[in-house]
Structures are given as structure tokens and as C-alpha cells.
Write a structure and sequence with these properties.
Blueprint (H helix, E strand, L loop, with lengths): L2 H4 L10 H24 L8 E2 H5 L5 H4 L7 H22 L1 H30 L10 E2 L3 H14 L4 E4 L3 E4 H19 L1 H19 L4 H18 L14
Antiparallel strand pairs: 1-2, 3-4
């Protein structure tokens, strides 16, 4: 194992300007639009991700939902997690690259979550105790994408799980994403769909399979390895995302 793979990736370096701007924007937007919701009737409820809102062609929700968090506890958790993961990825990728990743993964997650949420609601309808709150908000989708990017590009790096316990990045990411999925199931189809959408965007952007040429190359490699050595996944390259 190389020195690059053995290093501890979290906590990361100092706070970068993009991460700082995102933290300030999320906190400020949440506070401002919570006040306007009460005073003017327009606020956080009109900016979060909801299937009904998108069905009403309120497409701005695709962009605004990462920046508002209605619940105080979720706001604190979201800011803390983004603080630690954001500063690491910004140092690795650069501020502009990291900011693009945040926005593309968030918007892409919401776009994938829209049809997926409709499908999951049909599936979960058979469960009498299931109640879908029908909304999702906060930077969780982008964080899920970052976790998948970490698991794909540096699975054997060391990460401080809970920022205390040393653990392989791949193991810690699987645990964290598992918790995110459980939380999504408990919260409803919309939250679960955004979580799964964020994970999918992290994999798509990191591996570059959104490019037809890259996808065809990976399919040819997969078929070749299956013929020669049996079925297994080809490890993607470990450089930046958006391949």
C-alpha cells in the first residue's frame, strides 16, 4: 500500500473559501427564509425539494434545496459534516472544481430523485406504517456524492469515523451511507430518493460513465475481464472527477 493510500484524509486541512461560502450561504438562507416564511408566507417551504412542487413546475427547488434546512438539528449536523468533508475535498480538487461538484451533484441528485420518489411511493404504499414527509433539504446529497467519490478513488485510505475512530475509508463510507439510507427510509421516499440520487451522482461524476466513450470503454473492459478471470468490477482511475 502506498503512502498516498495510507494517509488519514479526515480531518482535512484548513477551511477553503468555497466551503466557507457554502456554510455561510446555507446558514444565512435558512435563517432569512425561515423568517420570511413566517412574515410573508414565502420561505423555506417553497425552496426545499418536494415532488408536488416539481410537479407544479417549481423548478427552482432543484437548485435551492441544498441551501435551506428547516429543522435545527439537521441544520447543525449538515453544517458540521459539510465543514469536515468540504474542506478536505476542496483542498484536493481546488475551490472552483469543488463548488461545481457540489452544485452538479446536488441538482443531479434532485433530478434523479424526482422519478425515483414517485416509484418508491408506489412500493412503500403497501406498508401501513410508512409515512412520507414528502420533502428533502440541505447539503446531504452533495455530501453523499463526496462519500462515494472517496470510496471509489481512495478506498484504502484512513478516515477518522465520527472524527475520532480510525477506519478504512471504504468501510467508514459504507457505514455512513447505510445510516443515510436508514434515515431516508424513516423520513420517506423523497429523502431516500435524494440520498440515492446523491450516491449515484458521486459515482457518475467520479467514474465518468456519463460520457458515452468512457461507458463503452468500461463495458469492453468488464467483458474482457469476465472472460479472462471471472466477473469483477474494474477499479476506476483515482484522479479527479468529471472524467
Amino acid at each position: 500500500m502506498s503512502q498516498f493510500q495510507r494517509r488519514v484524509v479526515l480531518p482535512g486541512p484548513g477551511l477553503g473559501p468555497a466551503t466557507k461560502a457554502l456554510l455561510v450561504a446555507i446558514l444565512a438562507a435558512t435563517l432569512i427564509f425561515t423568517v420570511t416564511q413566517r412574515a410573508l408566507g414565502f420561505g423555506v417551504n417553497d425552496l426545499i425539494f418536494t415532488v408536488d412542487g416539481l410537479l407544479s413546475l417549481q423548478l427552482w427547488r432543484l437548485v435551492t434545496f441544498p441551501f435551506v434546512v428547516p429543522q435545527l438539528l439537521n441544520l447543525i449536523i449538515g453544517l458540521v459534516v459539510l465543514y469536515f468533508f468540504g474542506r478536505y475535498f476542496e483542498a484536493e480538487w481546488g475551490s472552483g472544481y469543488f463548488l461545481r461538484f457540489f452544485m452538479i451533484s446536488s441538482v443531479g441528485a434532485a433530478m434523479l430523485a424526482f422519478p425515483l420518489s414517485l416509484l418508491l411511493n408506489l412500493v412503500f404504499r403497501v406498508l401501513p406504517a410508512f409515512t412520507d414527509i414528502g420533502m428533502s433539504a440541505g447539503p446531504g446529497a452533495a455530501v453523499d456524492a463526496m462519500l462515494v467519490a472517496l470510496a471509489v478513488t481512495m478506498p484504502d485510505s484512513n478516515i477518522l469515523f465520527g472524527f475520532v475512530l480510525p477506519m478504512r475509508a471504504k468501510t467508514a463510507v459504507y457505514i455512513f451511507i447505510g445510516l443515510q439510507v436508514v434515515f431516508g427510509i424513516m423520513s420517506g421516499a423523497a429523502a431516500l430518493s435524494v440520498t440515492l440520487g446523491g450516491m449515484a451522482m458521486g459515482y457518475i461524476l467520479t467514474t465518468g460513465i456519463w460520457r458515452p466513450t468512457r461507458l463503452m470503454t468500461r463495458l469492453r473492459m468488464w467483458r474482457l475481464h469476465r472472460k479472462r478471470r471471472g466477473l469483477h468490477v474494474v477499479k476506476p482511475s483515482s484522479d479527479k472527477t468529471f472524467h
